Amino acid sequence: MNAKELRSQDASALKETLMGLLKEHFEMRMQHKSAQLDDTSKLKNIKRSIARVKTIIEEKKV
């Protein structure tokens, strides 16, 4: 998701998106530790998406 799509969502939808991303990040970390994750660049992309969502949530608070 890009920032433009995220900014069009309301706060509750952003929180749901964040929870889904955090869950996905946890699952990928477990796969990485057990050597089941083939493409480790996905971890980086998920972390950036989480940061993007958190930033937009904070912007909407102001």
TrEMBL record:
<dbReference type="GO" id="GO:0006412">
    <property type="term" value="P:translation"/>
</dbReference>
<dbReference type="GO" id="GO:1990904">
    <property type="term" value="C:ribonucleoprotein complex"/>
</dbReference>
<protein>
    <recommendedName>
        <fullName>Large ribosomal subunit protein uL29</fullName>
    </recommendedName>
</protein>
<dbReference type="InterPro" id="IPR036049">
    <property type="entry name" value="Ribosomal_uL29_sf"/>
</dbReference>
<keyword id="KW-0687">Ribonucleoprotein</keyword>
<dbReference type="GO" id="GO:0005840">
    <property type="term" value="C:ribosome"/>
</dbReference>
<keyword id="KW-0689">Ribosomal protein</keyword>
<dbReference type="Pfam" id="PF00831">
    <property type="entry name" value="Ribosomal_L29"/>
</dbReference>
<comment type="similarity">
    <text>Belongs to the universal ribosomal protein uL29 family.</text>
</comment>
<dbReference type="InterPro" id="IPR001854">
    <property type="entry name" value="Ribosomal_uL29"/>
</dbReference>
<dbReference type="GO" id="GO:0003735">
    <property type="term" value="F:structural constituent of ribosome"/>
</dbReference>
